[in-house]
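Quick one, tokens below. Sequence please?
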């Protein structure tokens, strides 16, 4: 699901009841929780350390209409949140989740049953049978509160979670785990009064592998950089995609030396392109409408005269950047020890190089490589100067 080492997948799950996470405020005098939550997630969770997806009950989608739901989620989607298909992808999302922010839905209960940490944003006990397993989850799982840091609450829920915390609830999920195919087929054949085909065992298809869809942020991204070192060359980056009324955390980390704004060229907020420090474009290197990267980067610097650096992301693990000084370089992440490509957004490498240059260092000091740190992850990035006609 596009989640790499050093990243956590946060799943927002809601059922369709009036007092659900998506339905409104749990208390009459309180503001709706969901708008607050969707604005705080990108504002508090660094984009390269957390990935967020939403699993919403099918009745939300089809009761209000997909267009209306997408409109409600629009700011969050532009900041990187991806809605998961209500019918096809929710099980894979739960398996991959590091934490589920949910309510009294069965999906939240299933997450707890398979050992995933849960944090309850809404949980109307009065709507549930107190003897039900879901009600028992509400009496044991931690609650999300609006006071204090949302990130701290998520991290605390993950750190304090014990794998067997919901063992008793898990045992009530099914009396015959792994046997549903055989039991249900036997029931169906009994109902229609014919014998089961003994020569064909009852089997279920495995869950399909989700597509690789890295988060795309078309909202302006505020980037904090610092921790610059020269032996070896390194820089720390924290990126926050903020759309609509969102805002950054009040306190910046102690390591921050400078900040800049990165904007995707396909942003809706086109006015922000004129004042962006870094402009990024995502496209294949041989896209005839835009490429080659050397041509687009030269045109982009002319198009955005106040921009200090432009980046053309042409693969999941690399980009080509051109500085205002005219230097053209390719930034490529080294694969991991297992040979797999780095899954960090290459725009983070471009911001790392921008932070390096903003600290007063020269490009030559970053050649042949620089380490870009995002949270606990260290991305070893090759810095390869290119001749103007190399691409």
């Amino acid at each position: 699901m596009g989640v790499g080492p050093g990243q956590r997948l946060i799943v927002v799950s809601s059922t369709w009841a009036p007092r659900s996470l998506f339905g409104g405020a749990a208390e009459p005098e309180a503001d709706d929780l969901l708008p607050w939550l969707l604005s705080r997630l990108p504002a508090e969770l660094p984009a390269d350390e957390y990935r967020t997806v939403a699993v919403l009950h099918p009745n939300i989608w089809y009761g209000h209409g997909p267009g209306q739901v997408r409109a409600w989620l629009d700011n969050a989607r532009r900041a990187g949140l991806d809605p998961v298909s209500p019918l096809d992808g929710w099980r894979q999302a739960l398996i991959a989740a590091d934490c589920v922010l949910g309510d009294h839905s069965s999906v939240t209960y299933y997450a707890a049953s398979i050992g995933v940490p849960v944090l309850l944003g809404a949980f109307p006990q009065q709507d549930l049978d107190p003897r039900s397993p879901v009600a028992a989850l509400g009496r044991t799982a931690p609650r999300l509160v609006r006071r204090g840091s949302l990130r701290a609450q998520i991290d605390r829920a993950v750190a304090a979670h014990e794998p067997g915390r919901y063992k008793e609830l898990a045992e009530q999920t099914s009396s015959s785990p792994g046997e549903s195919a055989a039991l249900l087929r036997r029931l169906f054949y009994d109902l229609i009064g014919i014998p089961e085909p003994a020569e064909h065992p009852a089997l279920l298809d495995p869950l399909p592998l989700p597509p690789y869809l890295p988060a795309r942020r078309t909202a302006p991204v505020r980037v904090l950089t610092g921790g610059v070192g020269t032996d070896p060359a390194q820089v720390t980056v924290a990126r926050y995609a903020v759309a609509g009324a969102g805002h950054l955390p009040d306190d910046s980390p102690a390591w921050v030396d400078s900040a800049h704004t990165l904007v995707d060229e396909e942003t809706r907020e086109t006015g922000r392109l004129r004042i962006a420090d870094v402009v990024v474009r995502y496209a294949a290197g041989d896209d005839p409408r835009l490429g080659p990267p050397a041509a687009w980067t030269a045109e982009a610097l002319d198009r955005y005269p106040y921009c200090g650096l432009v980046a053309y992301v042409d693969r999941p693990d690399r980009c080509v950047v051109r500085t205002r000084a005219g230097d053209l370089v390719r930034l490529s992440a080294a694969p991991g020890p297992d040979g797999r490509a780095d899954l960090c957004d290459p725009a983070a490498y471009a911001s790392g190089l921008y932070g390096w240059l903003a600290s007063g260092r020269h490009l030559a000091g970053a050649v042949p490589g620089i380490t870009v740190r995002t949270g606990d992850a260290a991305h070893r990035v090759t810095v390869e100067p290119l001749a103007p006609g190399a691409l």
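The longest strand covers residues 221-230. The longest helix spans residues 180-192.
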